[in-house]
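hey so u asked for the seq, here:
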Amino acid sequence: MAKITKVSPLAPASFPDLPVIAGASFASAEAGVRYQNRTDVMLALLAPGTSVAGVFTRSATRSAPVLDCQAKIGGDASEGAAILVNSGNSNAFTGHRGQMSVKEVTEETARVTGVPVSRVFTASTGVIGEPMKHERIVAKLDELKAAQAPEKIKDAARAIMTTDTFPKGSARQVEIDGKTVSIAGIAKGSGMIAPDMATMLVYIFTDAKVEQARLQTELAAICDKTFNCITVDSDTSTSDSLMLCATGASGVDATDAEGFWEALYDVMLDLAHQVVKDGEGATKFVEIQITGAATDADAKTHGMAIANSPLVKTAIAGQDPNWGRIVMAIGKSGAAAERDRLTIHFGDILVAKDGWVSPDYKEADAAEHMKQQELLIRVDLGLGTGAATVWTCDLTHGYIDINADYRS
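ran it, C-alpha cells below
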C-alpha cells in the first residue's frame, strides 16, 4: 500500500469536536490486516432500539461484506447492533473464502458482544482480490469490546483510513421541542470515488428517534444530493457503504422535524466535500454548477462529464483556464446540448456565451481565478430549467504516484 506522508493541502485545520451520541460507543485496535503500527479495525456498538439504514455500492462486483449488510438492513432493532470495519483489505472478489470470512467475523463479533449475528454489520476497505486474514480481526474482538467508550469516535475515523491523508468527521446539533438532538459522522475516502456511492465508507450516528423505513428513505434521498454528486476519478468501488444509526436515546422523535433532516444533509454534504478534498493527489476543490439543462438528470450528466474529464482535471491542476475542454466535455456527455446556447463562467468571469468566446473575456482574469484552491465552474445550457451541482478535484502526478504503488 502506498505510504502517504503528506496531508492534503485542502484538509480542514483540525478534526472537529464531535458530540457524544448516547447509545453509541467505539473502539479501535491494531490488527495488522495489512498495515503495521497503526490502527486498522474499529468496532461500534449501538444500544437496543437503534434503527439502522444503509446505502451501498451498486457495483456488480461488490464485496462480501456489502452483500451481507444489504441482506441485514431493516431487521429487528430490539437487541442493538454492532458495526465492525477493517482497512487494508476489501474482502472483494474473494469468492467463497470471502463469504466464509464474513461469516466467521460476524459470528465471533456476536459471541463477544452479545449482539445477534443478524445485527452485526461489517465493512472492509483496501486491496481487492486478496484473501482476508480475518483471524487477525477476530483476535482483537475482546480488546475492542473492553475498550468501548462513547468519545472514541475520532479513533474510529482514523482506523478506517486507507490512502486518506486525514480523518474525516462532521457534526450538527438541532433543537427539537426544546431538547437537543445530536448528529455525528465519520468517513473515509480518497480514491476510487464516483457516484453509485462514491472507495468510501461513511458512518453517521444520531440520538434522535426515527423509524427505520423513514430513516432509509431519507438517507437514500440525501445521498443522491451529496455522496452521489462527488467524483475524484470516475471509478466506483466494490465496497462503498453508508450507514445511518438512530439510537433514539435522546427520547426525541425527529421523524417530522425538518430541522433534523436539514442538519443531516449538512453533515453528509460536509463529509462528501471532505472526501473530495482528500482526493488522491488533490490540490484543488472544484464545484461545478449546471443550469438551463433540459432536465435535472441531464444537468447531472453534464456536470459529471466535466468533473470526470482527465483533460479538464489536468488543466485545473496546471491552473490553465482552458475553457475549450469544458465545451468538449459538454459535447461528449450524451445529454441534450446546443452549441450556440452555451454560457460558461469561471467563478464570476464570463468566458463564453451563445456558442462563442465572450468579447469581454480576458485570459489573464481567468488564469488568476485558477490559482485559487477552491474553484467554481458554471455552465448554462440555455435549454430548460434542469440544474445540478457536483464536486470534484484536480488530477495531479500525486494521483499516479499513489496508485502506481498501491499494492507495494
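The CA atoms of residues 174 and 181 lie 5 Å apart. The mean pLDDT is 91.
lmk if thats what u needed
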